[in-house]
Inverse folding.
């Protein structure tokens, strides 16, 4: 399906300078205390750069040394200089020619990875994106979202599992006939010259996660808000970074999401309200490219606070090629599922962009941003609460539109068998268990059969989605599908057939894939946010899986 050629992003380059100027002006004029802001930036940057040394460290030390002697005007000018530097560093780009080439090249490039000989034999079909539809499935209210994209700004907020997500999601937008979106990408991803070229010309803007001070965050948020105000559709990963555990995000970072509400409020204050619509989405893989690195990072205590993994599978061309060849050789190996669109306050919207509350009653979205004087205004405390409520609806959408696949089901059943065989409740005690644990294949299939029945019940209630490749399959076939998917990709075997039994090999990866069902109470839940009851405790998970055996020789 073609996209609307009048999409604002096609004129992005002509507006780039004015966007940066508006961001700089907004940050400079709205900063209440330039001295405090610059002092914080100098302190944090000096501390970050102290080990590396160099001219940048010397610059920040020099600034810190004479900040107290600057006049108010000099402080404001210095603030503007740094805001401008950061804004240009963040600012993305969009090249219509690169987009056209990338859209056409996706099919042959992925097809070549999947089956090079077949691609060469059928070159006349090589540029047909429909050849990937059985491997990368797009679901959800696409026509509804298309209509909204024509009358307002759409902000996509998908789950985040892999550094391939932005590529895969871009493909989903193309297949759904939706316009491209600007999106933030970690600056470390721009070190690869090929990826950098495409991302730099396809609307990606750079996010330097090493920078923690308020000035940089203000520039980033202002840039996002200005884009949305001007009608540029956007993409945020509200989880912040890739899910280390493999589970569906239940705790979001809503800083950038809040810029959607800010954009709506600002345009309403100008008397020209720009409708802003949020579309949650789930990206679901049968296999995850970086699963081994991510789960190791999750399991390391210091990994919970680490922002960037500098070296993982997504940085190695050979591993990416192996992953794509494996993934695209399996039908329905990736499902992107769009959820029902919301307004900036968490209300559902209809095709005309009209908001409806939980009871289906029409509500005026502008009423949410009115101050006590009855006029539209920005209110940080009020707007933060609205954004929190929006975040709760996004989390709810993530759970309802999680697409369950064979690897998730089999891993959940196998990991529960492992826990019962080891007989220890502590996660790390289970994962450190050295002896082989085996489970009769027929018994694992019985567990899978029970799990499938529970999944279908939840799907009937709209609480989860079952992948097309999983629906109407027998338990034995689902086990076969999972074994076929696991075999030959990960560096460690996950499940190994041995006669009529299966050996549970890589307990980390079993834990990783079963975590996709943890939030629904269908798998052991060790990833519940602090202060919440684990879902498996809440739902009484884990009955009847007692037939696994553990021994050094089994």
């Amino acid at each position: 399906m073609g996209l609307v050629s009048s999409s604002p992003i096609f004129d992005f380059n002509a507006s780039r300078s004015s966007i940066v100027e508006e961001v700089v002006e907004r940050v400079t004029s709205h900063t209440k205390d330039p001295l405090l802001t610059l002092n914080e930036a100098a302190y944090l940057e000096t501390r970050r750069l102290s080990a590396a040394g160099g001219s940048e460290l010397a610059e920040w030390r020099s600034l810190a040394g004479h900040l107290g002697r600057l006049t108010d005007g000099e402080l404001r000018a210095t603030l503007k200089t740094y805001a401008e530097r950061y804004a240009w560093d963040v600012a993305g780009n969009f090249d219509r020619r690169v987009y056209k080439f990338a859209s056409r090249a996706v099919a042959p490039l992925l097809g070549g990875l999947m089956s090079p000989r077949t691609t060469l034999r059928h070159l006349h079909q090589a540029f047909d994106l429909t050849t990937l539809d059985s491997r990368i499935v797009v679901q959800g209210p696409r026509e509804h979202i298309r209509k909204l994209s024509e009358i307002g700004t759409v902000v996509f907020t998908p789950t985040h599992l892999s550094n391939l997500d932005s590529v895969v999601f871009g493909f989903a937008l193309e297949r759904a006939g939706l316009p491209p979106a600007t999106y933030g990408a970690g600056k470390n991803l721009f070190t690869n010259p090929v990826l950098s070229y495409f991302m730099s010309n396809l609307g990606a803007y750079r996010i330097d996660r090493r920078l923690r001070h308020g000035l940089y965050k203000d520039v980033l948020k202002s840039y996002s808000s200005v884009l949305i105000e001007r009608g540029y559709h956007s993409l945020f990963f509200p989880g912040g970074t890739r899910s280390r555990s493999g589970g569906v995000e239940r705790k979001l970072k809503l800083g950038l999401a809040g810029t959607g509400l800010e954009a709506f409020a600002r345009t309403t204050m100008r008397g020209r309200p720009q409708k802003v619509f949020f579309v949650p989405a789930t990206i679901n893989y049968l296999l995850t490219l970086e699963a081994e690195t991510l789960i190791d990072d999750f399991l390391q205590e210091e990994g919970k606070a680490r922002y960037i993994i500098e070296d993982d599978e997504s940085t190695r061309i050979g591993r990416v090629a192996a992953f794509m060849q494996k993934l695209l050789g399996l039908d329905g190996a990736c499902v992107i599922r769009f959820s029902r669109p919301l307004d900036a306050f968490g209300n559902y919207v209809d095709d005309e962009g009209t908001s409806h509350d939980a009871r289906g009653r029409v509500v005026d979205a502008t009423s949410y941003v009115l101050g006590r004087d009855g006029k539209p205004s920005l209110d940080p405390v009020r707007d933060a609460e609205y954004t929190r409520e929006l975040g709760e609806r996004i989390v709810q959408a993530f759970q309802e539109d999680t697409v369950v696949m064979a690897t998730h089901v089999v891993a959940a059943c196998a990991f529960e068998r492992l826990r019962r065989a080891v007989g220890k409740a502590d996660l790390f005690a289970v994962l450190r268990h050295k002896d082989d644990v085996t489970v009769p294949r027929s018994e694992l299939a019985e567990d899978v059969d029970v799990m499938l029945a529970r999944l279908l019940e939840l799907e009937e209630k709209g609480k989860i989605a079952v992948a097309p490749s999983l629906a109407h399959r027998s338990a034995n076939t689902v086990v076969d599908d999972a074994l076929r998917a696991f075999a030959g990709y990960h560096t460690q075997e996950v499940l190994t057939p041995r006669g009529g039994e299966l050996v549970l090999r890589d307990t980390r990866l079993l834990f990783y894939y079963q975590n996709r069902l943890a939030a629904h109470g269908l798998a052991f839940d060790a990833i519940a946010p602090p202060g919440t009851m684990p879902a498996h405790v809440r739902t009484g998970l884990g009955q009847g899986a007692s037939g696994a055996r553990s021994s050094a020789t089994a």
